[in-house]
Write a structure and sequence with these properties.
This protein is an alpha+beta fold and 312 residues long. Helix content is 31%, strand content 33%. A hairpin with a 2-residue loop joins strand 12 and strand 13.
Length: 312
C-alpha cells in the first residue's frame, strides 16, 4: 500500500513536532499545512487515531523505531519517518506515545506512561522507578551498573547488598556501596539525592563529588551543582508528586509528559521560564492550569494530542 501525499506529510509533521523545540514559526507552518486542505486534516487525525491504540506490531516495525531512536539526530529523523510510515501502514493499533516510549523492549526494567514500577537486583536490592522509565542492567555481577536512559530511579538500601553499585545517565555516573538514593534523568541534566549512606558522583564534566546523606546535586554540561531540595522532595515522584524549585518550564513539562498521553511542548522563550511549586502527577491537566496561574503563558491545543505552552 502506497501512502498518499497528505499521509506522508502527516508523518513528516509527526517527526518534526517530536524532534527539537517547537517554535512559533513551526506551529504557524503546521497550522497552514493542516488547514490548507481537508485531506491534510483528515490525514493528521487518521494518523493520531491509528497511533492512539496499543496492540501487536510486527517485530521489524518495532526494530525500525528502536534503531531510529539510537542514531544521530539527522539520521534518526530520516529513520523515524520510515519507521512511522511502517507503523502507520501495518500497525494500526499501535499508539505513538505507548509505541515509541514503550519500545525499550530490550530494557531490563521499563514502565509505561502514567505507571510507576518496581523491581529488584539479583541480590534482592529493591528498585522503584518513575513512569515512562527505561533502565538497562550493565556492568558485571560483582559490580552491576544501572543505565538509566529515561525517567527516575530510587535504589533502596538492602542489608544483603555486597560490593559496589553504579547508576549511569547521559550526564555521569553515581557509585555507592550501600546508600539509599534517587537518580533522575531530566531534560538537559540529571539529579542525585542521597537519603542514607554516601555516594560518589562522577559527572561527565568537572571533578567528582562526594554526596553524603541529606545532600542533592544536579549534574550536566556545567558539572555538579549543589541543590537545596531535600531527598524527600527529589523522590516525591514515588508518592505521585513533583516538587519544582526554580525548574525550567521545559524540564517540568518533560516530567508531566511521563504521566500524560500526547505531546506537551513549550515554544520559544517560555522554555527557560522558571517554575516553583508542588504538582500532583495524577492530574496533569490540573497541574498545567496551576502552571498557567504562576507564569504568563498561553496554552494552544491541537486536537487531543498536541499541547503547546508559549509566553504571552
Amino acid at each position: 500500500m502506497k501512502l498518499g501525499a497528505a499521509e506522508q506529510q502527516a508523518i513528516m509533521w509527526e517527526v518534526r513536532l517530536r524532534e527539537g523545540d517547537v517554535g512559533a514559526k513551526m506551529l504557524n507552518e503546521f497550522d497552514r499545512w493542516r488547514l490548507a486542505e481537508a485531506a491534510n486534516e483528515q490525514a493528521w487525525n487518521a494518523l493520531q487515531q491509528r497511533l492512539s491504540r496499543i496492540g501487536g506490531a510486527r517485530v521489524r516495525d518495532v526494530s525500525a523505531v528502536v534503531h531510529a531512536l539510537r542514531t544521530p539526530a539527522i539520521e534518526r529523523r530520516r529513520a523515524l519517518r520510515a519507521a512511522f510510515g511502517l507503523l502507520a501502514l501495518g500497525c494500526g493499533t499501535w499508539g505513538l506515545r505507548e509505541g515509541v516510549h514503550g519500545l525499550g523492549l530490550d530494557a531490563d526494567w521499563r514502565s509505561a506512561v502514567g505507571q510507576r514500577g518496581a523491581g529488584a537486583l539479583a541480590d534482592g536490592t529493591p528498585l522503584v522507578y518513575d513512569a515512562n522509565s527505561r533502565i538497562y542492567l550493565a556492568g558485571s555481577s560483582a559490580v552491576p551498573v544501572l543505565d538509566l536512559q529515561q525517567g527516575q530511579l530510587l535504589v533502596k538500601s538492602w542489608p544483603q547488598r555486597q560490593g559496589v553499585l553504579g547508576v549511569t545517565t547521559a550526564h555521569g555516573t553515581v557509585v555507592t556501596e550501600g546508600a539509599e538514593f534517587s537518580v533522575g534523568r531530566l531534560l538537559k541534566r540529571s539529579v542525585i539525592a542521597v537519603s542514607s549512606g554516601v555516594a560518589l558522583l562522577r559527572p561527565n564534566y568537572g571533578p567528582a563529588v562526594r554526596v553524603p546523606a541529606g545532600e542533592t546535586f544536579y549534574f550536566g554540561p556545567r558539572g555538579a551543582q549543589a541543590c537545596e531540595l531535600s531527598f524527600n522532595a527529589v523522590s516525591a515522584w514515588t508518592r505521585g508528586v513533583c516538587v519544582a524549585d526554580r525548574m525550567p518550564l521545559a524540564e517540568l513539562l518533560e516530567i508531566f509528559g511521563r504521566y500524560r498521553k500526547g505531546l506537551l511542548r513549550v515554544s520559544g522563550a517560555a522554555a527557560a521560564m522558571e517554575v516553583s511549586g508542588v504538582f500532583r502527577l495524577d492530574d496533569i491537566e490540573r497541574a498545567l492550569l496551576q502552571v498557567v496561574d504562576i507564569l504568563p503563558l498561553r496554552v494552544q491545543r491541537y486536537g487531543g494530542y498536541l499541547t503547546v505552552l508559549s509566553a504571552i
